[in-house]
């Protein structure tokens, strides 16, 4: 008898019909002789609705109170899913993050898991029950209700799979797997059969929404294989595993697009040691996730520092940047929301030089201006104007052989 | 410095604007130098919406899961109210029932309070914080989330007032106090300045929705004076206290109408000992609150037993009654949802004979047929057809001098 952890995302449980469909899925898995632990997200837009409600009531939302508010969304789904399972003759019980002993640190809204106790889940599984856990949440060492950031229900699932030594961790989502690009932008995007953690990490970091970055990190660090699939078809999805890419794998795994970031530029910064620290330390202290950073070479003793960060953190960041800019004697600060990030990801890139050059040429041929560049061993990201995003992504998907599924096997042939 | 407990009901916190208005009220109370504990209900129709959601997902809703689901409503309000208080510069903190140590028995959906620990509230009050508590909920001795029945946020407020030895317990609602009748039915209904617990208990038992029966019982048993008032005016409301009625008080305090009950009749029951027990014990076991019971005198060795009960319990009761009716050899069961209950309540009734006779004559003059009668020392209730309710209630309100505020001072003059 295998233990399967199944996580159902917000779109999979968006309304009563879909909750019942997911319950059917769980019931079948249970009847096949498996123990099942279910992790659920809040229904559809429930979390967004709670956030708007908070915005209408209050200008400044203490993290502790936001966590008290937001954790209710997943609890509602957990209770409803458990009721639907009872209707199907499946003995089930719902649990909050606190009840299953997901112990976190005290950083509200972005808490980190310290320990997963899981005693009540083990006991309930021993009694033959399906356990339905409200995702995204835990209880802090100070006994406060905490949440672990958007998308953290995946993290709850990986963490439970690890704590319970599950045979599989299935992530049910609104797509049938991980794709070579966002199919809404690139219709010819293909579903990947498998992808390794490093590639998945880079894709998540580059803005792919299929899996949250931290849950991939957790799964990699604890070697929990993930199976990303749809709740509404029985077709196999994408396996995310530790497997190294083989010779047959394409060099580039996918094109990732991200429109959730904004660019901030601090202009005319005096070029002296300690300036970067003065800027980025307070941002880190406020848990603002700065992504790409570019500093121009100095010509007149001053320099411009640009960086990207989630638009959602802008409210917090704006005050900090303005204050620091004044302290360090910068000439000004500009913001640009009309940017997008497009990235190439693939483990094969490591041993294949010239990818960056091919990428830049492809973009140049499309008249796409590159505003910022950042690279890792298996990823190249560029920031472009929002208006150029689709054109850039489609050109790259085609140029790197992803349309056909053959993959890119070397430098692009010279054009024209 | 006095400690004030303030409870805000569902209509008082139905939308962001009203939550902010209630927060203003709390902030003013705090600035006047009081310690404040706030108890909140779920926003407007939030609880009803969660119940419909459960109905759409599942046919049979385990109590434990319903409690997991329903407690989220009050938590949302508690978090939002706390945020609104922060905006007003008031240091505040929200708590769930479990966090403040409201320990209940294990009867889900209708749990009873065993103990109120209140340690976290005392500590937070000591730090100068306003405590905002999610009403209606507690944690059972088996460490499960429980709820204490509809309207139990009032109970949370009285219990906290008792545990913290509060100077006052203010119940903020959508009306400005307790009225001599429901103003929606009887426009000339008047607000009562004060009422004693026994009268309030009978009014709640007779179907008045202003205060929940159990919270009045609790307040009476623990001598917690309640001040029922509106959150949106500063006028004084109605004080509910232990005070005995004085000579000047009217004999009849109010007319209470109730349209939430249904009548069940078990026909042709063999008239032998133990029949009532056979019927009502299993209903009590299923926590169905049977209200009025009438058994007709037997003529042919069989008898008809009629009783009223909340329509909302009908789903549970129907099966039980059908089963018992068959077991005891009854001829059949009928249900009637089109009934209403109208009651006269007043402590003066105790020492004033003939009230029942005057009541029946008033109804007869209005051609209202009486289906069932039940009395206590300070209440007379009759069941009538729903269609007759308004006419009956208005006639009684006028006949017993409640329109003018003078009150009824003796038997009605003989009419025509």
Care to describe what's here?
Chain A has helices at residues 16-31, 46-57, 63-87, 119-126, 153-163, 197-205, 213-221, 275-285, 314-327, 355-365, 389-399; strands at residues 3-8, 35-40, 92-95, 102-104, 113-116, 130-134, 137-140, 145-147, 168-173, 194-196, 226-230, 238-241, 254-258, 261-270, 293-295, 302-310, 332-336, 339-345, 372-376, 379-385. The model of chain A is unreliable at 409-416 (pLDDT under 50). Chain A has a domain at 3-174: 3-Layer(aba) Sandwich (Carbamate kinase). The relative contact order of chain A is 0.10. The first copy, chain A, is globular. With 416 residues, chain A is an alpha/beta fold. Chain A starts with a strand and ends in a 17-residue tail after the last helix. In chain A, helix 5 runs parallel beside helix 7. Chain A has an 8-stranded mixed sheet, sandwiched between helices. The first copy, chain A, has a 4-stranded mixed sheet with strand order 5-4-7-8. Chain A binds chain B through residues 16, 19-20, 50, 53-54, 56-62, 64-66, 68-69, 71-73, 75-76, 78-84, 86-87, 93-94, 96, 99, 143, 145, and chain B through 16, 19-20, 50, 53-54, 56-62, 64-66, 68-69, 71-73, 75-76, 78-80, 82-84, 86-87, 93-94, 96, 99, 143, 145.
Rg from Cα of chain A: 23 Å
Shape of chain A: globular
Question: Based on the structure given, which CATH architecture of the domain at 3-174 in chain A is correct?
Answer: 3-Layer(aba) Sandwich
Q: Which percent range describes the beta-strand content of chain A? A: 25-35%
Biggest sheet statistics of chain A: 8 strands, mixed
How many helices of chain A? The count is: 11
Which structural class is indicated by helix and strand composition of chain A?
Answer: alpha/beta
Extract low-pLDDT stretches of chain A. 409-416
The main sheet of chain A orders its strands as: 3-6-2-1-9-11-12-10
The CATH class assignment of the domain at 3-174 in chain A is: Alpha Beta
Give the beta-strand count of chain A.
20
- The percent of residues in helical segments of chain A reads 25-40%
Terminal residue distance of chain A = 61 Å
Largest interface: A-B, 38 and 37 residues
Can you tell me the CATH superfamily of the domain at 3-174 in chain A?
Acetylglutamate kinase-like
CATH topology of the domain at 3-174 in chain A: Carbamate kinase
Oligomer: homodimer
Mean pLDDT of chain A: 90
